[in-house]
Amino acid sequence: MKDFVQNVLIDGQTELVSNYFREDELIQHNPHMGDGVQEFLNVLNLWNKDGKPQIYSKIHIVLGEGNFVLVLSEGVFRGDQAAFYDLYRVENGKIEEHWDVVEAIPEPGERNNDNGKF
Fold first, then answer.
1. DSSP letter at 108?
2. Whether 81 contacts 73, CB under 8 Å
3. Residue 15 three-state SS
4. DSSP state of 110
5. Is 71 exposed, middle or buried (CB count within 10 Å of its CB: 0-12, 13-18, 19+)?
6. What is the reported pTM?
């Protein structure tokens, strides 16, 4: 999962998606997109064209248990600094299912403390 986030989401190497998914199979629990790998890529491309891309810049933590992996990252979502909490279900070495939470990271002067998101 760390390689997927680094290679595809941070580095933008979308040509590598077949390494991480079984054809177009992806059950997506994100309210902004439907099921399927192609749908996932289409929405990312649409956001880029709209000038409000989803940009992953850094992986902070990768936690796994059984066939579930949680990746905590940061970047920009629709123009705002954000924390990404992506939960993946992996089966036979391929991503089968995805859930996520995107949380805004306030500007330093607007934060209630210095704990950060991670």
1. G
2. no
3. helix
4. G
5. buried
6. 0.91
